[in-house]
Amino acid sequence: MKYLLMLYADEKAGAAIEPEQMAGFMGQLNAWTESLRKANAFIDTNALSPTGDSRTVHVENGAMQVHDGPYADTREQFGGYFIIDAESMDAAVDWAAKCPAASWGSIEVRPFARF
User: Fold this and answer.
1) Predicted TM-score (pTM) above 0.85
2) What is the CATH number of the domain that holds 100?
3) Could you tell me which of 15, 43, 91, 101 has the fewest CB atoms within 10 Å of its CB?
4) Main-chain phi, psi angles of 81, to 5 degrees
5) pLDDT 10s per residue in the chain (115 long)?
6) Considering its fold, how many domains does the chain have in total?
7) Residues 6+ apart with CB under 8 A from 87
8) Mapped to the 3 state alphabet, what secondary structure does the chain carry?
Protein backbone atom coordinates (compact mmCIF):
# COMPACT_ATOMS: atom_id res chain seq x y z
CA MET A 1 0.00 0.00 0.00
CA LYS A 2 1.17 3.53 -0.74
CA TYR A 3 1.66 6.07 2.03
CA LEU A 4 2.34 9.79 1.89
CA LEU A 5 4.90 11.02 4.42
CA MET A 6 4.38 14.78 4.79
CA LEU A 7 7.38 16.55 6.30
CA TYR A 8 6.67 19.60 8.46
CA ALA A 9 9.27 21.94 9.96
CA ASP A 10 9.73 25.57 10.94
CA GLU A 11 10.92 27.09 7.66
CA LYS A 12 12.24 30.25 9.38
CA ALA A 13 14.43 28.13 11.65
CA GLY A 14 15.52 26.08 8.63
CA ALA A 15 16.51 29.22 6.71
CA ALA A 16 18.78 30.21 9.62
CA ILE A 17 20.79 26.94 9.53
CA GLU A 18 24.37 27.38 8.35
CA PRO A 19 25.03 25.87 4.89
CA GLU A 20 27.55 23.33 6.23
CA GLN A 21 25.09 22.09 8.85
CA MET A 22 22.28 21.96 6.26
CA ALA A 23 24.53 19.92 3.97
CA GLY A 24 24.98 17.44 6.84
CA PHE A 25 21.21 17.21 7.34
CA MET A 26 20.68 16.67 3.61
CA GLY A 27 23.35 13.95 3.66
CA GLN A 28 21.42 12.16 6.42
CA LEU A 29 18.19 12.50 4.45
CA ASN A 30 19.86 11.18 1.29
CA ALA A 31 21.18 8.16 3.20
CA TRP A 32 17.68 7.44 4.55
CA THR A 33 16.27 7.78 1.01
CA GLU A 34 18.83 5.25 -0.19
CA SER A 35 17.68 2.83 2.53
CA LEU A 36 14.11 3.20 1.19
CA ARG A 37 15.38 2.43 -2.33
CA LYS A 38 17.28 -0.67 -1.17
CA ALA A 39 14.12 -1.94 0.56
CA ASN A 40 12.05 -1.30 -2.61
CA ALA A 41 9.87 1.05 -0.55
CA PHE A 42 10.76 4.31 -2.35
CA ILE A 43 8.27 5.73 -4.87
CA ASP A 44 8.78 9.51 -5.02
CA THR A 45 9.94 12.58 -3.10
CA ASN A 46 10.20 16.32 -3.54
CA ALA A 47 10.75 19.48 -1.54
CA LEU A 48 8.41 22.44 -1.73
CA SER A 49 9.27 26.11 -2.13
CA PRO A 50 8.70 28.37 0.92
CA THR A 51 5.14 29.09 2.00
CA GLY A 52 5.50 32.71 0.86
CA ASP A 53 5.41 31.38 -2.71
CA SER A 54 2.08 29.60 -2.17
CA ARG A 55 -1.54 30.60 -2.65
CA THR A 56 -4.64 29.23 -0.96
CA VAL A 57 -7.76 29.03 -3.13
CA HIS A 58 -11.31 28.74 -1.85
CA VAL A 59 -14.59 29.01 -3.75
CA GLU A 60 -17.62 30.15 -1.80
CA ASN A 61 -21.00 30.74 -3.44
CA GLY A 62 -19.33 30.67 -6.84
CA ALA A 63 -16.81 33.37 -5.95
CA MET A 64 -13.13 32.46 -5.94
CA GLN A 65 -10.99 33.77 -3.11
CA VAL A 66 -7.21 33.62 -3.36
CA HIS A 67 -4.97 34.32 -0.39
CA ASP A 68 -1.19 34.59 -0.31
CA GLY A 69 0.54 31.85 1.64
CA PRO A 70 -0.80 28.83 3.45
CA TYR A 71 -4.29 28.55 4.91
CA ALA A 72 -3.21 28.38 8.55
CA ASP A 73 -0.55 30.34 10.38
CA THR A 74 1.35 27.60 12.18
CA ARG A 75 4.80 27.12 13.66
CA GLU A 76 5.62 24.27 11.28
CA GLN A 77 5.07 24.33 7.53
CA PHE A 78 4.60 21.52 5.01
CA GLY A 79 7.98 21.46 3.31
CA GLY A 80 8.20 18.24 1.34
CA TYR A 81 7.02 14.69 0.99
CA PHE A 82 7.90 11.09 0.34
CA ILE A 83 5.60 8.53 -1.21
CA ILE A 84 6.50 5.07 -0.02
CA ASP A 85 5.21 1.54 -0.38
CA ALA A 86 4.75 -0.27 2.92
CA GLU A 87 2.87 -3.40 3.97
CA SER A 88 0.98 -1.64 6.78
CA MET A 89 0.50 1.62 8.64
CA ASP A 90 2.86 0.32 11.33
CA ALA A 91 5.55 -0.29 8.71
CA ALA A 92 5.02 3.19 7.24
CA VAL A 93 5.27 4.74 10.71
CA ASP A 94 8.51 2.81 11.31
CA TRP A 95 9.96 4.29 8.09
CA ALA A 96 8.83 7.78 9.16
CA ALA A 97 10.47 7.36 12.57
CA LYS A 98 13.77 6.53 10.85
CA CYS A 99 13.61 9.65 8.66
CA PRO A 100 16.11 12.28 9.85
CA ALA A 101 13.48 14.98 9.25
CA ALA A 102 11.53 13.56 12.21
CA SER A 103 14.27 14.93 14.47
CA TRP A 104 13.82 18.55 13.34
CA GLY A 105 10.08 18.56 12.58
CA SER A 106 7.00 16.37 12.32
CA ILE A 107 6.01 13.76 9.76
CA GLU A 108 2.36 13.02 9.04
CA VAL A 109 1.81 9.52 7.66
CA ARG A 110 -1.32 9.10 5.58
CA PRO A 111 -2.39 6.15 3.44
CA PHE A 112 -3.63 6.72 -0.08
CA ALA A 113 -7.37 6.14 -0.36
CA ARG A 114 -8.59 3.07 -2.17
CA PHE A 115 -11.46 3.72 -4.57
Assistant:
1) yes
2) 3.30.70.1060
3) 15
4) -150, 160
5) 999 999 999 998 998 999 999 999 999 999 999 999 999 999 999 999 988 888 888 898 999 988 887 766 677 889 999 999 999 999 999 999 999 999 989 999 999 998 8
6) 1
7) 1
8) CEEEEEEEECHHHHHCCCHHHHHHHHHHHHHHHHHHHHCCCEEEEEECCCHHHCEEEEEECCEEEEEECCCCCCCCEEEEEEEEECCCHHHHHHHHHHCHHHHCCEEEEEECCCC
